[in-house]
Design brief:
The chain is mostly helical. It contains 6 helices and 3 strands. The longest helix is centred in the middle third of the chain and has 14 residues.
């Protein structure tokens, strides 16, 4: 089993704004959904998520707000289950099922 993902508040806000539907979301829409986050904080948290591989973007970098608005983002489907459990702490505490098939 892999390591447990630790997220800060800005990263949680971004992941909730992106959603787990698998569709691309424009940076412009993400800025609107992020609410009262400053662009610098949003861009810094997003760069961390992209560098960790949790989020996929169609551009390598976005230094200005205009570049960020034209960038498309989506959650990496390979990490979606781990990210969902990181967002919902009650799922982490639930034990795995130990159902056994009997013949």
């Amino acid at each position: 089993m892999g390591k447990e993902i630790q997220l800060d508040g800005a990263e949680v806000t971004i992941l909730k704004a992106l959603g787990f539907g698998g569709a691309d979301l424009a940076g412009e829409t993400l800025l609107e959904r992020a609410g009262n986050m400053e662009f610098a904080e949003l861009a810094d948290a997003m760069e961390g998520l992209v560098s960790a591989g949790y989020v996929i973007s169609d551009r390598d970098g976005f230094k200005t707000a205009a570049e960020f608005e034209r960038t498309l983002f989506r959650i990496n489907s390979g990490y979606s289950r781990e990210l969902k459990s990181a967002l919902d702490p009650t799922q982490r505490d639930q034990p795995k099922s130990r159902r056994v098939r009997r013949e």
